[in-house]
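Figure S4 source data
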Amino acid sequence: MPKSMQSKSEHNATYSNLFGGLLDETDTYKHRRPNGMEDWLLFFTLEGEGYLRTSGEEQLCHSGQIAFLRSGIPHEYGTTKGKRWHFYWAHFQKLPEIDYLPNKEIIVATIPEGQMHQRVQQTIQNVLTDSREQASFWHMLCENSLREIILLAARLLEKRLDPRIELALQYLSRHMTRPIRLEEVADAASLSLSRLSHLFKQETGGTIIEHLNRLRLQQAALLMEHMGRTATEASLDVGFNNYNHFADLFRSTYGISPRAYKSERLKPSSGS
């Protein structure tokens, strides 16, 4: 991938198209726009640290953080003194999803390590690739990728969960269809099991097992309703090895047995 899709001298231009790049800069790097710009600007730091400054505030963008600079705001950004800054950047016109972000000049969200971090990085790479190649529908593909990034950031800022609990939730979601030991979840979150259990309850209001069972039950219900799976098949698909335990949990959650739920959902709707 090229270091940047635009030369630094082009940074003073007024941008109407969607584009971005990848930079790795020393602490001599900085750029000022006294009059702001028409575009929004996104940063995603891979390594090191950069700063974003407006007349009203200054924010740092550390490794694993994504930042947005609002359009129309005079600003300066650059590498923090004594650091390097390895980061993706992208210019884009305002999308409706921006309104889900806080109404601030600089918006910074921390992307949890692991699957979420990989997802955001891959999505930004998709933006760069599509905007460079400009094949059919490239602009819409880029905007859809940016919408995903914006919504992920908005969700993180709204939930404000401890990043270690985000890692635990990701692990449970990815591995829920197989037997999971709680020690595995603790390792994924880089916490002791006792600390994870306490923090998980504090952040989510429930236990790890309760959350895992809820994920599995929701998926089982969808499989029975939309994929034609029997109650027994659905229970095995989502990771339950004991059907009676699955049925008890399902009945407690949905107020009806799994088989009755499937029958009820498959009934043709009565016409008027």
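Figure S5 source data
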Amino acid sequence: MTDARAADTGAARERSATRVDAHHHVWDLAIRDQPWTADIEPLRRSFTFDELRPQLSRAGIDATVLVQTISVAEETPELLALAAACPEIRGVVGWVDLSAQDVSARLDELRSLPGGEHLVGIRHQVQGEADPQWLLRRDVTSGLRAVAAAGLVYDLLVTEAQLPAAVEAVRRHPDLRFVLDHGGKPLIAAGEVEPWRSNVTALSEQPNVTVKLSGLLTEASADWTVDDIRPYVDHLVEAFGPTRTMFGSDWPVSTLRGGYEDVVAVTEELMAQLSPDERSAVFATTALSSYQLERASA
């Protein structure tokens, strides 16, 4: 998408009081390596919030949710401290070892740190786990119960093949609010719809789960078009409804397929058929409610 097209789309958007990017990252390779980027040369550099901030402004995004990138305990306190220093960052989805016996204590400790009031959720890179039933393990089940007891959200980062276990995990934890990252990672580049479609439908039938329209461009081929992505986005919005669907950029991973403003503009184009209130839900109120961002920023 050209910059001109993105600008035209942005100029025509209806603005809500707050527009939220519910999923982005930052990292500094001088502080900590990101081994998952080893073979992704464009991502083998530091990406800071100072770099993102002007792009948020140009795209009309007012608030963000900062999400962990690596399963190490040291990262989350750094993200919380950054949130404390940056008013645009309303919430942090951090990491704890869900298999540990003291998850509750670790969550309490994170909340006691500078910026700890911004902790809104927990995530683990389940997509990297060899066990397709990892979410259903007894120790992980105990960890998820601790997340629920703490009033936090759990972000589901799973592959398409792990969706059945995600469905069962959501059913087992009706008191825990779940957010499905990246729309469950459909195989867009391959043009495959099933079994992703059926599994996502089953997940959407559980009232305690919402979904992010994030990371979908990077599931498409390098020469993607909006029409490549549209069937997957349409199904997600139809299955979950706008009030359980939220926008996330997945910056800077999204830079593999386009600029920040392009990602926002593509999502706006795909949401054009919705009513103004429904678009406001996707770009604001679903994230504000799901992550309780107003309370986190108080």
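The domain at 3-297 is CATH 3.20.20.140 (TIM Barrel). The longest strand covers residues 89-94.
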